[in-house]
Amino acid sequence: MNLCIHRGAKEIGGSCVEIEADGQRLLLDLGLPLDAELDKTPLPDISGLEKLDESLLGIAISHAHLDHYGLVAKVRQRVPVLIGKGALRIINTTRQFFPDAPDFLRTIEIRNKEPIVLGPFTITPYLMDHSAYDAYALLVEARGKKVFYSGDFRSHGRKGRLFEKLLQNPPKGVDVLLMEGTTLGRSGLENKYPSEDELESRFIDHFNSAQGLALVWTSGQNIDRIVSIYKACRKTGKKLIVDLYTASILMAIKNDKLPQPGFKGFHVFVPTSQRILIKKRELFDIPKSVSFCRVYLEKLTDLASSSVMLFRPSMTRDLETAGCLEGATLIYSLWPGYLEEERYQWFQDWLEKHQIPLTYCHTSGHAPVNDLKRLAEAISAKRLVPIHSFEPDTYKEHFKNVEMRNDGEIWSV
Ligand SMILES: [Zn+2]
Q: I need a surface site. Which of 72, 142, 211, 394 has the fewest CB within 10 A?
């Protein structure tokens, strides 16, 4: 078995690993690098993506984050994409709103612990706890060798027990563990991220003390977080108002345990930017499907003090027009680094202009070092190869049997 990390050996984002056995090949993820533009980013030099090469059997996508699947949008051949059902539904919904998202022409559904045989490869997905819904680690076996690709993971989210189960019953005899290390060199060394349950309690405090509209800026795809926010709304008697995109994602997943239109106190607002998009792309069925729980701009002032609203900066003008910002507060629930970027200076000014206080309420989608160690010890692979980290050099300080690889290097297992 031969391996090549095309991208990700020394960076977070754009992960892509090629595995070859008996002349047949499989890709694990085909991500868009962080901050990269799709138009300006070429595909990695892998035969079968642009021109037909039947030895490329499939592209397994670990989860629905752009830095793991974004470049599939540029693949010219009908290579089967192996992906979870929930992740596929999220990407398909995202494409209605953001046309850059890929359209997977051929898909093979992956399910927790159900092996799939593709040529010489047996691929076993392990459902993981991560900030993306329906995220998997992937065990790939071929020619008596085993590679375990961690994908992105954590244990402090709403599916943390999956991680504990994996530790109790890990795959045996793994030759190579490709393990993410997002938090190395970041805050992961402190080993104490709040759990989603703890965040829920913090949201309750914030919502209780809010005088006016409580705006929460988070990702519409961070389903764990939306569950935390919704639960906190229920416990504080607040209504939750989400934008049409977020509502569409929640409905598309088709998991009736997730908050969505029809749930008590759940409302949908269609911001101008999304209204223009609906008109332009003639997606009228989407707003129609939520008409029974829709709230309009004119109502926002009346609802402000009894509501929590999911927020994105493109909504600022709508909120000004509605005149609902008196006593408003903004709870920032994303990676803090984004807000410090220059492109959001205008937004900081906007908050100041309207005297909206900002508080942070967030936890990482990735495991701190302690949990990375627990996984490395449980899998106990012959070799541990860093991936999805800006600090691969520091792996040796924390884990055993570390072997560094470079992007583009081909090595055998
Ligand atoms: Zn991710």
A: 211
